[in-house]
Design brief:
Blueprint lengths: L1 H25 L3 E6 L9 E5 L1 E2 L3 H4 L2 E6 L9 E8 L5 E9 L8 E11 L12 E8 L5 E4 L2 E4 L13 E6 L10 E6 L5 E3 L7 E9 L4 E15 L1
């Protein structure tokens, strides 16, 4: 009798384990990362690429934690980024390393970003010629120097074209016809990026401004939401 009871318990345990395993396999794990910059830059790193080395000092790149403009809410923090394009093009970007992913899986990466911008939404205005892009890569986005020119290591596409590792979320206009700071949303919608982590379970996410306009740009990143869905 004891033998039969032992076998019954074993069958029950195996059955429960099988159900649990099946249930886990039916679920796509989702990882969400939200950066609001309340106390620091939250490990985002700023850099820039697509420029001639001789223009380095003229670009005056700056990335720092700052308050949002008073017209929006000066009591809230943001990540402020500014620079001046003095050449044919420039790509201003921030990047962040994400660890602890499953190296055997592919991840669908989506972005939802709020930015403070004062570029009016008018025909041929500067704001319409600066595109906000976001994406993800197995490799760290870095600038590469060749023949006096800094290129970018990830495939972001042309300034007004999506790349295989980055996509256009929209331009940087404020949604109105006046140069007043407004908080606007840009998201990846159906342009999510698929990425497979490296052997250590690491990917890099990247957000940046892509333009050929010879202008100074100043943007305030109010918050950045990144959602990674295991495929």
């Amino acid at each position: 009798m004891k033998k039969y009871l032992t076998w019954a318990k074993l069958v029950l345990l195996l059955s429960l384990y099988g159900c649990s395993a099946e249930k886990r396999n039916d679920v796509n794990p989702v990882r969400t990362m939200i950066s609001e910059f309340d106390t620091d830059t939250e490990d985002w790193i700023g850099d820039y690429a697509l420029y001639n080395i001789k223009d380095t000092t003229k670009i005056a790149f700056l990335m720092e934690r700052d308050s949002l403009p008073a017209a929006i809410d000066s009591l809230k923090s943001s990540l402020r980024m500014e620079a001046t394009n003095t050449g044919d093009s420039i790509f201003l970007f921030i990047k962040k390393k994400i660890v602890g992913l499953n190296p055997e899986k592919t991840y669908n990466v989506s972005f939802d970003i709020n930015i403070g911008t004062n570029y009016p939404d008018l025909d041929n205005a500067t704001g319409r010629k600066v595109n906000l892009k976001a994406g993800a890569s197995q490799n760290e986005p870095v600038k590469l120097l060749k023949s006096g020119y800094y290129n970018l290591s990830v495939k972001k596409g042309f300034w007004n074209v999506d790349g295989s590792e980055m996509a256009i979320l929209g331009n940087i206009t404020n949604g109105i016809g006046r140069a007043v700071y407004q908080l606007v949303n840009r998201n990846s919608s159906s342009k999510n990026i698929l990425v497979k982590p490296d052997a250590q379970g690491v990917i890099w996410v990247c957000v940046g401004e892509d333009t050929q306009e010879k202008v100074k740009t100043v943007l305030y990143y109010d918050n950045i939401k990144v959602v990674l869905t295991e495929q």
